[in-house]
Amino acid sequence: DTAVSQTPKYLVTQMGNDKSIKCEQNLGHDTMYWYKQDSKKFLKIMFSYNNKELIINETVPNRFSPKSPDKAHLNLHINSLELGDSAVYFCASTRRGSYNSPLHFGNGTRLTVT
Amino acid sequence: AQKITQTQPGMFVQEKEAVTLDCTYDTSDPSYGLFWYKQPSSGEMIFLIYQGSYDQQNATEGRYSLNFQKARKSANLVISASQLGDSAMYFCAMREGAGNQFYFGTGTSLTVIP
């Protein structure tokens, strides 16, 4: 199946821990994103990469570090997790520079920090 | 100014009736795309429909149609013959020109009543 897949689907961890979320897409897209969705369902862009190059870097604590080994993969590493990091994190992809190309989302990773 | 505005936090519709979810946008770029996404309670983000700024006709996808009024800068989603499975959050989004940023609205929660 062609899709955006992210793992894990659920992540429960304690404050202070470090965790990673992985994302892969096989849609042939060259641009990938991380979004954070808070409890009020608001979607906030965090990062975007185009072909391994960081192109969008919103105001996000530097505890969050994205990494794109190639244009089909974008991972998110979070250091020293805090309670406020609890949210759903979505990976997404699209074609660069085409306003008619939609975002395709992964199924989300629900992160709970206790 | 907000790029995408959804003024209806919650909507109710009777099963089999039609419902319109409002979306207004703000851009000075002549080239842009408008998108609607559905997020059911299971959490995934599903792409529903796209409308391009140069499209002369309103987009349709099955029971979904987009009422595009360019002069009013509105892109309302119309769902015909509502079904219980249509109960979800609906997000309007915009992408401008050759940019890679997607602007999302705050969403509308739709509940279909049997």
A few lines on this structure:
The complex is a heterodimer of chains A (114) and B (114). Chain A is mostly beta strands. Chain A has strands at residues 4-7, 10-13, 19-25, 31-37, 43-50, 53-57, 64-70, 73-78, 87-94, 104-105, 109-113.
- Helix/strand order of chain A, N-terminal first: EEEEEEEEEEE
Low-confidence stretches of chain B: none
Shape call of chain B: globular
Find the count of extended strands of chain B (DSSP E, 2+ residues).
12
Individual helix count of chain B? 0
Query: What is the multimeric organization of the chains shown?
Result: heterodimer
Largest sheet of chain A: 7 strands, mixed
Helix/strand/pairing category of chain A = mainly beta
CA-CA gap between termini of chain A: 35 Å
Largest interface: A-B, 28 and 27 residues
- What is the overall pLDDT average of chain A? 94
**Helical element count of chain A?**
0
Strand content of chain B: over 45%
Helix-and-strand structural type of chain B: mainly beta
Cα shape of chain A = globular
